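Researcher: We're teaching a course module on how sequence relates to structure. For the next exercise, students receive a sequence and then see the predicted structure as tokens, so they can try to spot secondary structure elements on their own. Here is the exercise chain.
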Amino acid sequence: MIFHFGFELPVPVSPVLDSESPDLTGEETRILKEQIRKNSRLIDDYIDRLDLFVNKERYPRKEAFIEKIRRRLNLLMDENNTFRSVLWKHFQKQELSPLTLSR
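Model: And here is the predicted structure for the students to work with:
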């Protein structure tokens, strides 16, 4: 166990979020990636539920709770597509920026 004096403790670095900048910061990129992963897990879960209810349990496709699951699934997929497109545009900007600087 290591003991430190109060003045020796490292200062916690707060995440940098800049809404005015056209580029994403490292923290914003991390948040997007984390949210894409979370949404992907939820999407897989909803697909498994739909498969269970519709294909295995043979509930009617127009059942109210099945429609609710489908709406949530569609919302998550749209959100994930938006996050992925933002992240893709960011990566393309990063990839193009060294090329324009070398010219």
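Model: If you want an answer key for the exercise: Residues 52 and 58 are 8 Å apart (CA to CA). Helices lie at 26-56, 64-102.
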